[in-house]
């Protein structure tokens, strides 16, 4: 049963690392490339509600039109910020992962470990070589 979904950007290292950690647990998630298939308003609102975070926490600043749109201005309501994210999906921070144990913005990528139903099955290093999981499937504490 496919009970994990990742809202993924394959161009993002953090997103690729989170996907790798999901797969290292033995799961094959539903992968939604949200830049190609953006969520609906209802889905985005449901994800934000499930994460129990402010809408602004889901906004991505780096590499987006955040500054040129003036989204740092507190005048924007949550609904308006969601409108901007729907119009410019690159503004949606990633990766967002949904599992039976919760929904989380997985930045850093290791945050996904707290919501995976199955343990890690072996060693895992981030793309930059940083060890995350040791050969016994245990989290490396740095």
What is this entry, summarized?
The chain is of the alpha+beta class.
Describe the structure.
This protein has 142 residues and is an alpha+beta fold. The protein has one domain (5-133): Glutaredoxin (3-Layer(aba) Sandwich), CATH 3.40.30. The chain contains 4 helices and 6 strands; from the N terminus they run βαβαααββββ. A 4-stranded mixed sheet has the order 2-1-3-4. Strand 3 (96-99) and strand 4 form a beta hairpin. The longest helix has 12 residues, at 13-24.
- In CATH, the architecture is 3-Layer(aba) Sandwich
Give the structural class: alpha+beta
As laid out across the biggest beta sheet, the strand order is 2-1-3-4
CATH class: Alpha Beta
What sequence of helices (H) and strands (E) makes up the elements?
EHEHHHEEEE
Instruction: Give the overall form.
Output: elongated
Largest sheet: number of strands, sense, barrel closure: 4 strands, mixed
Number of domains: 1
Distance between the termini: 34 Å
What gyration radius follows from the Cα positions, in whole Å?
A: 16 Å
User: Would you identify the regions where 5 or more consecutive residues have pLDDT less than 50?
Assistant: none
Question: What's the CATH topology label?
Answer: Glutaredoxin
């Amino acid at each position: 049963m496919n009970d994990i979904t990742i809202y993924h950007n394959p161009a993002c290292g953090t997103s690729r690392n989170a996907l790798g950690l999901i797969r290292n647990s033995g799961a094959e998630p539903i992968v939604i490339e949200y830049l190609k298939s953006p969520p609906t308003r209802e889905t985005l609102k449901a994800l934000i509600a499930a994460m129990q975070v402010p809408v602004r926490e889901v906004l991505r600043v780096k590499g987006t039109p955040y500054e040129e749109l003036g989204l740092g201005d507190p005048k924007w309501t949550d609904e308006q910020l969601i409108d901007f994210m729907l119009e410019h999906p690159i503004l949606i921070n990633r990766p967002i992962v949904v599992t039976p144990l919760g929904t989380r913005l997985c930045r850093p990528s290791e945050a996904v470990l707290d919501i995976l139903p199955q343990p890690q099955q072996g060693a895992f290093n981030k793309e930059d070589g940083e060890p995350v999981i040791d050969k016994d499937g245990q989290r490396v504490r740095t």
